[in-house]
Structure formats: C-alpha cells, structure tokens
Design goal:
The chain folds into two domains: about 250 residues, Rossmann fold, CATH 3.40.50.300; about 120 residues, no CATH class. It is built from nine helices and 15 strands. Helix 5 crosses helix 6 and helix 7 packs across helix 8. About 45% of the residues are buried. The mean pLDDT is about 90.
Amino acid sequence: MSSMINSVELLNFKCFENQSFELRKITLLTGLNSSGKSSFIQSLLLLRQSYYQDLLPDVGLALNGDLITIGTAQDALFEGAALLEDAVEDQIGFRITWQDGQRGEWLFNYDRVADVLSLASQPTTSEIYNTSLFSNTFHYLTAERIGPRPFFETSEFQVRQRKQIGTRGEYAAHFLSVYRDEHIPNSILSHPKAESSSLIEQVRAWMGEVSPGTKIERKLSPDMGLVSLQFSYGLSNPYRATNVGFGITYTLPILLAILASPPGTLILLENPEAHLHPKGQSMMGHLLALAASCGVQVVVETHSDHVLNGIRLAVHGGKINPEDVCLHFFRRIEENDQALTQVVTPQIDRNGRINQWPDGFFDEWDKSLDALLEPAQE
C-alpha cells in the first residue's frame, strides 16, 4: 500500500518563502481567495506533472502541462524574492516526508537573467516515485469541472490503463461505463440503501443524497469515442445530462474518485461544494471523512462551512479520529509593506469542536447574525 504524505515544505515557491504543512488522512484547506491554498496544491501537482513529462528525476520542472499552467520560472518564484533586484540566483524547493519514513527533496536554481530553473538536487532513491503522488493511485479534480454535456469523452489509456477520471472529470462517464459492475474496495463507504456494493449502485445511492431517486445510465458509442449519460427519477422517462442540474455532473467524478479508490490513494480535490445545496455539501464532507478513515488520503480545498461540518460530524460520530483530521486556514497579512501568507492550524477534538476560530475562518454567518441583531437603521 502506498504510504501517506506526512508533511510538505515549500521554499521560495509563489507566495511561500519557507512554509511547512502537516498532512493527515484528511486535510482541509480554507481561507480567503488568493491566500495560497491553490499554490499549495500546485506544488504537489508540479512534481507529478514534471515526472510524467519525463523531467524528473533528472532534468527539472514542467511548469506548464495537463495538470497546471504556472507560466514562467519567475511566476513560480516567491513573490518577495522577486522584489530583491540585487539577487542573481535563488532556489525553489520542495521537501516531502512520508509516513513510512521516506523523504524527498527537490531543489532548483533560478537564474534571473535567463529566467530558467535548473535542477540542483533530487532524492537519492527512485522508490519515492512509487508513492501515490506519482502513481496511478491518484486523483486530482479541479474546481472547474465538466458541466452537463450531450456526450462525454472516452480515453482507453486514461481510463483502462491508468484508472484516471480526468482533472475536470471529463472521463467520469467512461470510467463509470468501464468499472460500473466492480465492487467498491472499501466496504465502510457502502451506502445502507444501495442494492449492492457495485460501483454503479453505490454511485446511485450516494447521488441520492444530492438528488433523491436519481438513477444513472450510460450509453457507449465506441465508434465515435463518446459516451452519454441519462438520468431518470422513479418511473420517469430518462433525461439527457443537459436537462439535469449542474450539481449532478459536478458531483459524479468526486463520487467515482472516492468510491473507486483503494487504500493508499491520494485525492486532491478543489471546491467539492460547487453547485451543491447545503445538505449535499455536508454529505460530501462526511463521505470524504469516511474515505479517509479507510486509508484514502484526502486533501480538499473548500470555502464551505457545510463541508467542514460534515467532517466535524464524522469525528463526533466516531467515524474518524480527530488526530486524523488537519485544518489549515490561509490568510494574507501585511508586513513591512509586503503582503505575506500566514497559515493557522486550528485543532479539532473528539467532540468535533475546534479550539480556535481566527478572523475569517468560517465566521461570516456569526458576523451577519450580529449585524442582524442590531436595530435596523431608519
């Protein structure tokens, strides 16, 4: 089983000068927009992308590719370092430690004149590239996922050989078509109302938490390399995907990634709450916590207090231990006329309670309620 990531340290990367992050079975990233959450996820994606473009371990970084597009080397350099005009060379670095004791360090020299990065040091063992960050036991779903479409893409290579859903969920329909009858690997994730433990029945049952009574069918057109999805409710005639809400097609790839992943998988997920009503958002947080309790490592970026509360309820209900949950709150502060990113890490206890609520950490409802309790202005 692939080992879980314990910590990540970033050196001179984007908004981080030198920042360490602890990761647990489930790690939640939250904070105001442009505070550094996506940059942290990009650091992991950058290493994976570089490996699959054959630039690691021997050459350097692939700043632009299928997973992320960063731009130039200067775009990857720490914002504060970019202001130091007298510096000729800097280093961008990534240090990762795994639960089994493995440790990887990638350092890259930055040449300001040529605006290029060159490899300075790398891990001494190739075993690191067998971990989930670099293997097929990995899923990344971006915030901008595929919405309702008459037809969806197929990819024999991505779906059958690599068991990937696509960063936007573009292969979700094909993935479901191929693996629909396979049993989900984690029985703890089995929905109590599902007719069986097959992937299709589990997806239907969990989708029912978002849209009750939803049934999903697919139609494969192998000659055209396309697959279509149809949805029905009870005895209704089937609907095309374009005639149902965004929430269903946005949720489908997340459910597939969670339910089909064996222990040791790493899932990076942005904004699972998109197009979901509050109950569905809370369900998503609860399901992510359940997956983490089964040995699937989850890193989720979210702005939803309902997703957070779904995780807290899972802790309160004994579904996952509080020490297996990590919360990171990102905020921008001004220091010496420079905007810096500060990371605060609140702790959660066995009752699902959080020990600190820094300003901006899911407190907007309390602020609005305080304002509403004040007498209305005439």
